[in-house]
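Every protein is a chain of amino acids, and every chain bends into a shape of its own. The protein below has been through that process, and both of its lines are reproduced in full.
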Amino acid sequence: MFHACYGLHTRFGNPGEVDLGSWPLIFGYALATLGCALLLVAFLGATPKLLPRWAIYLGRISFGLYVYHQFVIYTMDHLIIQNLSAHMNPLIKSLEGPIYLLNMSLTLGLTILIAALSYRYFETPFLKMKKRHSVIESQPIQGDN
């Protein structure tokens, strides 16, 4: 939600900042609203049957999404945005909007890919090890009185 509000420039009154128009503002608030609604549904205790499988999978790999997203954002910004913004070609300059969308799409896809690989090959063995080594305390049997 922070990226929806801050990263998409849904703020006002910064001197020297270029006005990006209303679409990033609308998209940013819509994204923040969607995040709040999903958070509310999660707190109300939605059953997994009500959620699509991809949402459940994203919840399963969410630790990897959290850990790797900033690295991927930084990397993709340096690979795509900074390299293309250095060009003086008017054609590339005219494609700033699509390049930004491409950057966001690649960043999201790469983050999900890295998080999925991390979950499969790094987290899953530790989760299995945790199950093997956990001690479950049993409750005493209560007799009939």
About this structure: The chain is about 70% helix and 0% strand. Residues 1-46 form one domain. The two ends are 56 Å apart (CA to CA).
